[in-house]
Amino acid sequence: MKLAIADWIVLAGYLFVVLGIGIYFSRKNTSTEEYFVGGRRFRGWVIGLSLVGTSISSITFLAYPADAFKTDWLRYLPNLALLPAMLVAAFVFLPFFRRGNMTSAYEFLEMRYGPSIRVYGAIAFLVAQLVRLAMILWLLSLLIQEVTGVTPTTAIILGGLFVGLYTVIGGIDAVIWTDVLQTVILLLGGVVCLWVILEALPGGLSQVFDLAGQAGKFALAPWENGAPGETSWSFSLSEKTATMMLLIGLTNWLTEYSSNQNTVQRYCASQSTKEARRGLWVYLFTALPIWAFYMFLGTALWVFFQVYPDVQASAILQGEARAETLMPHFITAYLPAGVAGLVIAAALAAAMSSLDSSINSVTTVSVVDLYRRHLRPGQDDRHYLRVAWGIAVAVTVFMIGGALWLNGTETKTLQDTSTILVSLLGGGMLGLYLLGFFSQRGDARAAWCGIGCTLVFTGWTVLTNKGLLPDALSAPFDLYYTGLIGNLLMFAVGYLAASLWPASSSAPVTD
User: Domains of the chain (ranges plus CATH)?
Assistant: First the structure.
């Protein structure tokens, strides 16, 4: 891909502003309170937009349009469960984390169950985030290679060092404010793409609705028996119905807003519970339209390539090329000079906003939940701040090393590795938190029973997925529902075990 001078100017300007934000806030980071939660002074609208930037990664920019282009709006359906999840998060989860000036999501687990469960929750989060960091940086490097023509190794190192630099020196202040900027850039990039499409179509916006509507491209859920007609709303563990997709979405969003440090850290960084709750509403009413917009962009691209046939687009529709190549191809072939630079900046923003948040949250959990709590308690705050800087650097190095390793593997290996690790260690985390939020029964013993059963269950589904079990012993349900069933199992086993081992008088419980 050859960029015009105007494109390079736009890209350079974006990167300069991001780095400048990191340098500006580096002067304020004189304590762990500032470095981890920004002095707890952020307004709700800032928190909300930063949550949008964190949750909208390269997947949104590449996969949402690709899915809508190739199929319909099925991927969007689970997002509709965000509204009930936000209500639960705002009025149930949020007050727990705002109590007692918490910094980490896993401090609650020690208050409720004891230190061993806190360590488990922290380690499960760290493993999942480290895998995620390597994956997203690897995806980011593909775009860098396309734009600059550098080798994969150079692209990974350059991308990782840049994100690591402003995140390490700027702390949570830089992360939150760059996420706000990146959210705006991401939306602008998508708007520019849609504008180019609509200007090129003879019938403009109405043509998109007419052609796509006739082809069923706006369908939100699978059709009964796989053919146009009535949508399937049945409850089934063997097929992907609309009802089950909504339940999957609800499970995912409740997990995100009950046990994910990236989110809980935003709760803790807010001025007050009121501002934190306001941030959730800003997130809800910003993220849902943005996701819908990117789905619509994919639908508009389908109409565009119906009117203007294209070899690459045809290959994607026929399954001969990866759907995720759709947006890079459109940027390369159809956007004018200067505009392409803005859209590439949006794609970079999508990845960087996820990377910086994860680096900072991994650093926070490592210091707060493990190092300060168990390895070196009682040190002065300056010591922990220096350790935080060191861990942030180490996480950046690990991220780069992981991306380099992934670059030498097949994509299938990458997906399998991340799925197995995250499923095994993170399975049942929502169930563990719900047991703590809604019940005071049981202590660490009951929690470990639930965790153990969930690990065995998840391992069984992994073996089934790998085809390592005979049919008689394989899981008799669609493995897409592993997380949903695992969380129900965690809650049920933990609650029943609590009947055998009620919380002791010395066990930490919630108020």
Answer: 5-25+55-408 (1.20.1730.10), 410-510 (no CATH)
**Whole-structure pTM value:** 0.86
Residue with tokens 């809980």: 264
CA distances (Å), origin 341, targets 12, 100, 109, 347: 9, 46, 45, 10
pLDDT digits (tens, 9 = 90+) for 410-447: 654 444 555 555 555 567 889 999 999 988 888 899 99
Residue with tokens 């707890």: 40
In angstroms, the CA 318 to CA 412 distance is 20
Residues near 261 by beta carbon (within 8 Å), at least 6 away in sequence = 104, 105, 106, 125, 129, 361, 362, 364, 365
* 336-374 pLDDT tens trace: 877 888 888 877 877 788 888 899 999 999 999 999 999
Q: What would the two tokens of residue 429 be?
A: 């985390």
Give the other-Cβ count within 10 Å of 133's Cβ. Answer: 24
Residue with tokens 């052609």: 211
Nearest to 81 by CA among 250, 297, 302: 250
> Taking a C-beta distance cutoff of 8 angstroms, is the pair 457, 485 a contact?
yes
